[in-house]
Specification:
By secondary structure, the protein is mainly alpha-helical. Helices cover 63% and strands 7% of the residues. The longest helix is centred in the middle third of the chain and has 33 residues.
Length: 147
């Protein structure tokens, strides 16, 4: 452990560096103390639920777009995800290309309604609404000392 020796604090011979840093930060104000994990769990769970619902809205939009652009590949991918045995070989490069075309199509044809605190773009009204709420819950939790 690092210590600082000197006469900065009369009557003490040594103070630990972490204690000095914590004292300085508290003296500056605005430092939220970490909340116990049990108090943070409800905030985190609410944020995660809202974020998952927001992402589901955007995933549905991308799947619809891929279905329109590459119907055969999308059917194969859906069958593979459902673990059906009759989907045949998948051309993964074609699937990647289709995904990129779908994303480009969305960028050209839709307005970004919201960009969340992690930089993810939301094109659907429902996804944007839920993502805003998730970010607000996250911020409220952080202000109460939750990570």
């Amino acid at each position: 452990m690092h210590t600082i020796r000197g006469s900065a604090v009369p009557g003490r011979h040594a103070r630990t560096l972490p204690a000095l840093v914590a004292s300085a930060l508290l003296a500056l104000g605005g430092v939220a103390l970490a909340a116990p994990a049990s108090l943070c769990r409800p905030w985190r769970e609410e944020r995660d639920t809202l974020a998952q619902q927001a992402m589901a809205a955007e995933i549905a939009l991308v799947q619809q777009t891929r279905q329109r652009l590459c119907p055969q590949l999308e059917r194969q991918a859906s069958a593979a995800n459902a673990d059906q045995r009759d989907y045949g070989p998948i051309d993964y490069q074609a699937l990647i290309d289709c995904r990129q075309r779908a994303e480009q199509s969305l960028r050209r044809s839709r307005t970004v309604l919201y960009r969340n605190d992690r930089g993810f773009l939301f094109y659907t009204a429902e996804g944007a609404r839920l993502a805003r709420r998730a970010d607000a819950v996250h911020l409220a939790g952080r202000m109460r000392g939750c990570p």
